[in-house]
Amino acid sequence: MSPPVIDPARAVRIKTSTGWANLAIQGPPGVPGYPTPVVNGQWLKGSGGAVVWSAIAVADVSGAEATANKGANNGYASLDSGGKVPLSQLPPVGADLIYQGDFPAGTPYTDGEIVVSNGIAYLCVTPTSAAPTAWPGGPTPTPPAPAVSYGTTLPASPADAQEAILVDSITNPSYQWRFRYNAGSTSAYKWEYVGGIPWSNAGGSTNGVVSASGTLVLSGGPSFTIPRTGDYFVGWGAFACNNGTFGGAYTAFVYVNYSVQGNGGQVAIQPGVAWDGASVYAQVRNAAISSGQQVRISISSNHATSQTNFSSGFLVVEPARVS
Predict the structure, then answer these.
(1) Are the beta carbons of 189 and 230 closer than 8 angstroms?
(2) Which of 3, 95, 221, 232 has its CA 20 to 30 A from that of 300?
(3) pLDDT tens digits along 113-138
(4) Domain match, 300 and 211 both
(5) How far apart, in whole angstroms, are the C-alpha atoms of residue 189 and residue 182?
């Protein structure tokens, strides 16, 4: 059978190894003398000016990537279900971001490092050891107002003006002290007391005190453990009375006493006759009272024979500022 005549106006031209040729799909299938429309494992190629079925050779697909190279090193990127290249196959953009925590003065930082100063996070964009500052011309950053914490310790890394409430027990506190952190203070005690309920207690008695007794801690009297080093207001007192053994006028003393630092203040009465007595009270601000020591009431007398009974001791403790 001779090749069909193709109308030039309707011809489909394809590029072959020897030039251009007309493409003719001849059939119907199975008619002798015509090529089979589909041959598995082959494709149409131009050869000698004609279109023929030919086996697919390696040279025909040279440069194509194998599927094993998808998403592999030195291969090509894959696509996710949304038609996008997964982030894991993309290179990092810009500097690696590294969180370094609080900014200590004088520490060198490099591009991409993040530090926190006064409750504000700053991103380093050029190597520096200077303290973080806002971008020139930009708005002045304001740290978020942190929630007021409530617990048996104060926050370890507070922001300026942060507030916290210190208690000795979450379930049944004997005091509730509210503090405000003052980062600009030149004192080591930057938590400044702004209000709350002081600690207080009363009780105790010691009888028959004379000068030879020395300075005694009021037996069974109130005692308080300093929770944090700082400055404290302390009020204290007791009832002191001559017990009838009177050898002449004398002075009886009531002290606020610290178990490590000793007496922090005193108040006195001077019985003039037998059974003479009174309640005494005083308040003082004591500086740099170290944590962990006991605050209590101590007593003494300066007469060898006149005896004094001390009772009803009371103690009030309130902070001024702490570490």
Answers:
(1) yes
(2) 232
(3) 888 877 788 888 778 888 887 777 77
(4) yes
(5) 9
φ and ψ of 173, to 5 deg: -70, 145
Range of the domain at 54: 8-60
Asked if residue 241 is part of any domain, the answer here is yes
Q: Angle 147-170-256 (CA atoms, 0-180°, nearest 5)?
A: 105
In the 3-class helix/strand/coil scheme, how is 128-170 assigned residue by residue? ECCCCCCCCCCCCCCCCCCCCEEECCCCCCCCCCCEEEEECCC
pTM, to two decimals: 0.58
β partners of residue 242 = 308
Average pLDDT, the chain: 85
Same domain for 303 and 222, yes or no, is: yes
Q: Is the dihedral of CA 211, 216, 222, 224 positive or negative?
A: positive
- Residue 290 sits in the same domain as residue 229: yes
Instruction: Based on the fold, state whether residues 226 and 316 are members of the same structural domain.
Output: yes
Does residue 160 lie within any of the structural domains? Answer: yes
For 201-222, how does the pLDDT look when each residue is reduced to its tens digit (9 = 90+)?
999 999 999 999 999 999 999 9
Amino acid at 110: T
Residue 45 has a pLDDT of 74
